[in-house]
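Model it.
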Amino acid sequence: MNRLADSQSPYLLQHASNPVDWWPWGQAAFDEAKRRNVPVLLSVGYSACHWCHVMARESFEDEETARLVNADFVAVKVDREERPDVDAVYMEAVQAATGQGGWPMTVFLTPDARPFYFGTYFPPGPRHGMPSFRQVLEGVRTAWTDRREEVDDVAGRISRDLAARTISVDAPRPPGAEEMGAALLGLTRDFDAVRGGFGGAPKFPPSMALEFLLRHHARTGSDGALEMVRVTCEAMRRGGIYDQLGGGFARYSVDAEWVVPHFEKMLYDNALLCRVYAHLWRSTGADEARVVALETADFMVRELGTAEGGFASALDADSEDPQDAAGGHAEGAYYVWTPAQLVEVLGEEDGARAARWFGVTDSGTFEGGASVLRLPEEQLGGEGEAGPGPGAAEGERFEDVRRRLFEARAQRPRPERDDKVVTAWNGLAVAALAETGAYFDRPDLVEAARRAARLLAGPHTHDEGRRLMRTSRDGTPGTSEGVLEDYADVAEGYLTLYAVTGETEWLERAGTLLGTVLERFAAEDGTLYDTADDAERLIRRPQDPTDNAVPSGWNAAAGALLSYAAYTGDHRYREAATRALGVVRELAGRVPRFIGWGLAVGEALLDGPREVAVVGAGAAGEVLHRAALLSSAPGAVVAVGAPGASGAAEVPLLADRGLVDGRPAAYVCRGFVCAAPVTDPEALEAALRT
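Modeled.
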């Protein structure tokens, strides 16, 4: 009996009809393994994972393979997005044992949850030196039956090693200017000056490293830091990783040139990159950055928005292939084009133009002679003119072609959507949409951020605002408690929404969540754990300060704690942020690519961060508020309110700040020590640059 039919997770529901007798993660599955005296097969993946779908089709939907699994194992299926703690603990074991990781993750456990054999994707037959999945099943079964003592010894050693891996920071001082310089040097060494980004293939959007570089440039004036951001953002904008028709970014590029993406689109990537491009525009005024920020924001609202106001997790890489008479699915089928398909939609003349503009060739850049749309460097300026895409004289025609292709593509079978609302990622989206809406006078985007925040404050929140659930679906909360990144990213989203709207509810809610971080997630030495002290006990309490696809809960918490302290003057929060940044000091020069958000928070601490109190209503107050929001001072916080209003009493930064000669005024402070107030935006901009 497959037990996944009642699950809320779309990923688990995809496996509910498998012949494999799946169990959800829980004590009942391990009790069953003990009763039967068989090992547990743990399979971890997520809905938008291409290779998860492949292994499902090849193995989990195969009757004979399922028979082997059901006879000799208790099979447990986990959605890594629902249970990041389970994923983190066993992925650490996989990486330690094999030197690599990925999804689907395949781990064999004893009935007391200790791992003893590891892998990721296994093919249905032996391939490229990899055993088949059936061979793995048979080998594990034999070891369990004939060499139990050896299995128990391996499981014991691995579990003890994992349990002993705790992070301690001696004299946890935050990074200083020297560490920031070392991080910049490390990124410069790894930078691909020709193609943008860092390292080689596969190449991931380095969102958090780019945020650090933007803040470092703002604090120091480093042209090299800004140039790395500019080159990388331009290369991604032109590449196939960016959807040239509908906006938004795919997960990563399989090559070093950003040409062919892994086509899944994740909410977190788009929220982070939306903010990066908005901040690049804020620093440079580059119109291309403005366009990408807005198109990415519109993609999130249009494609990922849910009826309840939140944002779905992801769009699949795969979709039904129109060229497959059997209705099979293929990766990228929704997005790629051939020259003939362009002509079919646009006609001969515009089809040929589109092929030139978007790099669509007869040989193709993807499978089956199809091409991923991009703006090849050799086509920049078209017709000999300067600038992106076609020449300026062809701009209207180019936009018309984009529109027609977008409308034609919309008629294709669409990728499946994982409409599970993940708390942390929605917090990232709230921050991105609030800022993008404020920068570019798009109140609809600010309202989208507010609606998502309302959902987070509703079904995702319990215990009088102190605790978070990890997910919801259709407005119904899931069963998994929130982890550190949920608290940190939602607090970040709330604080950003407060800065944009001046609605004190969001500042108060952020403070409540960050109080829980200090109470439930922080150790006395300042280190942070990914799970609360009252969470389900795994073989190890997960703890990781490094940034990967998203900011680590550790570094995101440091950033939110620092911002909240800047609003309130509460030294407990600033001290907690400072202690948490101690690990960034240790890692800054060694692995700057994987501590990017921690470095960005460190830049804010070095700069103060600036605290801007804007007092006064009306048009003059709005102009000052906008000037404050558009400051690139690292991590600057902005409070806005009318003198004597209720908000001034609730926001310490606004307390005792009044009008100047009856006019709205802005106060620029550090540590609540303020310079003389200013009443015109130019003076405020100058004060925030010094």
